[in-house]
Amino acid sequence: MKDITRDIETAAAEAVKEIYQVDLSPGDFLVTSTKKEHKGDYTLVTFAVSKTLRQAPNLIAAAIGEHMQRTKPWVSSTEVLQGFLNISLSTDYWTSVMDEFKANPDFWKPVQPQEKVLVEFASPNTNKPLHLGHIRNILLGWSTYKILSACGHDVHRVQIVNDRGIAICKSMLAWQQFGEGVTPESVGMKSDHFVGDWYVKFEKKFVEEYKTWQSSEEAKELFDNRKDKELAEADFFKAYKNNYFNTTSKLGKDARDLLLKWEAHDQDTLDLWRKMNGWVYNGFNETYKNLGVEFDKLYFESDTYLLGKDLIEDGIKREVFYKKDDGSVWVDLTEYGLDHKLLLRSDGTSVYMTQDLGTAQKRYEEFDAQRMVYVVADEQNYHFQALFAIMAKLGAPYAKGLYHLSYGMVDLPEGKMKSREGTVIDADDLMADVIEEARIAAADREMKDPEVIRRIGMAALKFFIIKVDPRKRMTFDPKASVDLQGQTGPYIQNAYVRIQSILRRAGEDRKSYEGYVLNEDEKLLLNLLSQCRHTIENAAKDYNPALVANYAFALAKEYHRYYHDIKVLQAESEVAKEFRLVLINTIASILVNTMDLLGIEMPDRM
User: Fold this and answer.
1) H-type helices in 3-56, by residue range?
2) Is residue 108 in a domain?
3) Are residues 346 and 371 in the same domain?
4) Could you tell me which of 3, 79, 97, 574 has the fewest CB atoms within 10 Å of its CB?
């Protein structure tokens, strides 16, 4: 398959081998598009190899240029400007690039040795609906899965559902004490939102209880005996809130008792837990469907929280871990620039690290995965550094294949659009709001098809989030996301729709474009098309879907410019028309495929 920059890099390496008897790899050279003010299609930069070859960059450029013109028929001319070699490619070469793209619709797919890869994403708690932060997580996880799959890997999508613990018991207790038997169906509410509201209800009741207690003699005595006499009353009770929950609160005691009953397998408690978690799962599944994602396997913390203890025992026997006098188990990670990490409490109970060790081992045994990618917010950077270090100390065969796809938080520019808890923006509300923004934006274009509007809205949401480097904190702007003139999903969709309109009018009877001489805009577009495979390879290597998103935008932007400047159906000749139809059809195919890697659907009309 033609790869324009790689062909030039390889030709330069061959020239250096013959002229200087020095072996350089194609990757040692930098090739860029030639600036418009200079003659040429591509520029080879020789400064980086000057020291190795012990010659001035301009002399190296001249020698390589002469060799290329002598040995490569596809190089029509060269020009040296200091250490820059500007290279013009022949018409036959450009046509052969188009021929190969036309003959192989999968030219954009990288070819890599297949590996088994597991991608974990979403992983919500079952006490509230999915929210804006989950959306970034899910979109990054899904597009990472799609990109790795496009590279030929065998990829499995999993999540671990945090379905146990005190937070879940708070929702259960609130419904048990105040719900009077209501159900999502009886109140007409989406079932995960219903459970989330009971979590909010618990917090409100707890705040009321705490406020009342603050007026008690016990609270006054506690405040009077505070160590920091300068601490104001409001600040003292704000800081004491968790202590109150764990030591004094009636609601706190009831929630803890419920957790103890769950751990003791009390049947009534388990029945309530299953009922309310079932409501949440039904709601989650609806949200996942609307986002266009699905999973190969779900793990549940209620099943995995006891995993890992065998690994701990093995680590103790091998003296990888150590016990303290109180019986707790620790690992020394100072050789990795970390500290000592707790693995088992003194009473023998697990911590999160324990179960994450066990879950990783279980997944390896089930999937034989060579790589495991964890899509988790950057708040957990330390946790995953420690997890991966522990696996390395244990000598796990998959330790080198562990990767934390860390991402920043998502903010909104104007506060909160809609919120059920006062701080969290529900995923369902956000999707509805963005689709509504798309409907408003489409009104001026007299677009009323609800499926098209849904695709535009979801493209706006997904692209706006994915285009940002995962490691960066970002601000999501619903109105800006649907802008047809900005760096948005709808902008790229519009490029595709314009192409489809031209192709429908042209019909399907394609003729030869032999002899056509490309203009500079067409060379630029072919160059962009040739970069697609490398972009996807880099996105897979770096676990960075933003590279694909920004590539799709760059291609759409150049097409929009081409659309305004160059005639296709009214081209100056039949061969020009035929070449341009094949070119824009290829562009449409790449736009569809790259956007699909981001989980974005294309409309045929807008």
Assistant:
1) 4-20, 47-53
2) no
3) yes
4) 574
Name the residue among 306, 361, 299 with its Cα closest to residue 163.
299
**What are the beta bridge partners of residue 85?**
44, 80
Containing domain of residue 76, as a range?
4-89
Same domain, 131 and 214: no
Q: Which of 128-132, 276-280, 339-343, 567-571 has the lowest mean pLDDT?
A: 128-132
Specify whether the CB–CB gap between 401 and 370 falls below 8 A: yes
* pTM: predicted TM-score of the whole model, two decimal places: 0.91
CA-nearest of 137, 131, 161 to 407 is 137
Amino acid at 442: A
415 torsion bin: left (phi>0), alpha (psi -120 to 50), beta (else): left
Q: Is residue 126 part of a domain?
A: yes
Could you tell me which residues are beta bridge partners of residue 405?
A: 375
pLDDT in tens, 241-291: 999 999 999 999 999 999 999 999 999 999 999 999 999 999 999 999 999
Question: Cα 1 from chain centroid?
Answer: 29
By CB atoms closer than 10 A (0-12, 13-18, 19+), residue 565 is: exposed
DSSP class of residue 588? Answer: H
* Number of folded domains that form the chain: 4
